[in-house]
Specification:
CATH architecture: Beta Complex
Helix content: 10-25%
Shape: globular
Strand content: 25-35%
CATH superfamily: SET domain
Order of helices and strands: EEEEHEEEEEEEEHH
Number of helices: 3
Length: 155
C-alpha cells in the first residue's frame, strides 16, 4: 500500500527518493514493505540492490517492496519511522515538497554499512546496525523502531 500523497522522483543527492505531493500528517502510513523476502546469514551476502533497498525484519531476513517503500532514503534527522515490521509511517507532520526519509538503523542490525550523505547537523557519517545507535536517539525513536529490534534488545 503506497500513500497517494507520495511521489517518486529524482533527488539532488541520492538518485530516486520519495516526496510529499500533499501535506502528510503525523501517524499516516507512507508505504508498506510488501515484496519478496530474502534470507541470508548476513546482509553482505545479499545482492547489492537487495541489501541497499530491502529492510531487515529478523536476524537473517530482509523484505523488499513492490512499491514506494524501497525508495525511501536515509536521514539522521528523519520524518518517518518503522511501525511493526513492515510499515513506514510519518513521525511528524510533513510539508508538501519535503523528501520522506527514515533512519535505516531503525530496522537494521547486521554487517551492512553505508556512508551517510544526509548533511544534517546530527549526521553520524556511517550508518549500519541498530546496536550503534546512540541511546539518546533510541529514546527519540522509541515508537518507530522495528518490532524485531524492540524484542531483540528488550526495549
Amino acid at each position: 500500500m503506497d500513500n497517494p500523497k507520495v511521489i517518486l522522483k529524482e533527488t539532488k543527492t541520492y538518485g530516486k527518493g520519495l516526496f510529499a505531493k500533499k501535506p502528510i500528517k503525523m501517524g499516516e502510513i507512507i508505504a508498506e514493505l510488501d515484496g519478496r523476502i530474502y534470507k541470508a546469514e548476513k546482509c553482505s551476502l545479499l545482492l547489492k540492490d537487495i541489501a541497499d533497498h530491502a529492510v531487515q525484519f529478523s536476524q537473517k531476513k530482509w523484505r523488499d517492496s513492490k512499491g514506494f517503500a524501497r525508495y525511501i532514503n536515509h536521514s539522521c534527522n528523519p520524518n518517518c519511522g518503522i511501525k511493526g515490521k513492515f510499515k513506514i509511517m510519518a513521525i511528524r507532520n510533513i510539508k508538501k515538497g519535503e523528501e520522506l526519509t527514515f533512519d535505516y538503523e531503525m530496522s537494521e542490525d547486521s554487517d551492512w554499512r553505508m556512508k551517510c550523505r544526509c548533511n544534517k547537523k546530527n549526521c553520524r557519517k556511517i550508518i549500519g546496525a541498530f546496536k550503534n545507535l546512540p541511546e539518546s536517539i533510541r529514546k527519540k525513536y522509541k515508537n518507530y523502531i522495528s518490532e524485531w529490534l524492540i524484542k531483540k534488545y528488550h526495549l
